[in-house]
């Protein structure tokens, strides 16, 4: 998409697994057998699904149909996972009973380990053994997958986040904007909280990014700086917990409590103040973005009827725009919040949780998964917000 800025914005889906060429997908071995009498197929499958369910291979079809000469159909069934050493003696006894009862001739076959994430992958998978394919509910083919209106909206919210990151004067910080896509409103925004010692021990310039990264205080890039660094070395440093995404979540929760107050807890505002106070009395926060947003809701007519039953459940359905890819702590907080989509502009090669180092969005054991997109920002826009030096672009 070519914008008024003279560059090309791109929205690139970041899948839950590193992309591999469709013909080089990971496979696992299974033990399969041909079924000579098709009328026995259902009975055999029922028995097998009781004694040898294919727990991690839900995408793999149990039966393979193949047309052979004369228009006949040959059926093969997966009996179980192949024993690790490839020795059929390792096949579970129950499955051996099925083999013997129906006089089957087992053989080893390969199936794809993970469900296909694209049609191209699925076509390749079916060459080995048929699988099912469920296209994602959102379009993932880059910016062409978004409508023109959607892509413009994504670009404008990312610009908003970039401007926010710039608003901290000469200290570069990460910025987060939580957006309700239904009302197209920013409902919470925040920057990394940078703390200053009240009585600086040195005149050192503000730096948290390690040697060579002057005047950057991007918490998610170095989430463990406080473990590695000698305390008191810098006059300015990132709060170990109050990363932009975390503070934005807190601000969104405060907004919900304010717009949908719970009369059972009259003192919620007092609790809020306690939470917002810095834990360390030695430090002073330069700016409290969570408080800034509070004033924005005075004109908010979309909500504010005070009906507790309509209080949103966390950030369900909302999107978040971040200038830098979040660290594990922030990415996990966004899972807990039930965020719908995460957009970030700059990869985080040292600690990124959504593509650069880890891929939390592909972690099967989690109970919520959001879609992740990188928004590639044109160079001239980065130059304008003075982020090009440290964005890695
Ligand atoms: Zn973080």
Automatic annotation (TrEMBL):
<feature type="domain" description="CMP/dCMP-type deaminase">
    <location>
        <begin position="152"/>
        <end position="357"/>
    </location>
</feature>
<dbReference type="Pfam" id="PF00383">
    <property type="entry name" value="dCMP_cyt_deam_1"/>
</dbReference>
<comment type="similarity">
    <text>Belongs to the cytidine and deoxycytidylate deaminase family. ADAT3 subfamily.</text>
</comment>
<feature type="region of interest" description="Disordered">
    <location>
        <begin position="280"/>
        <end position="304"/>
    </location>
</feature>
<dbReference type="InterPro" id="IPR002125">
    <property type="entry name" value="CMP_dCMP_dom"/>
</dbReference>
<feature type="compositionally biased region" description="Basic and acidic residues">
    <location>
        <begin position="286"/>
        <end position="300"/>
    </location>
</feature>
<dbReference type="InterPro" id="IPR016193">
    <property type="entry name" value="Cytidine_deaminase-like"/>
</dbReference>
<protein>
    <recommendedName>
        <fullName>CMP/dCMP-type deaminase domain-containing protein</fullName>
    </recommendedName>
</protein>
<keyword id="KW-0819">tRNA processing</keyword>
<dbReference type="GO" id="GO:0008033">
    <property type="term" value="P:tRNA processing"/>
</dbReference>
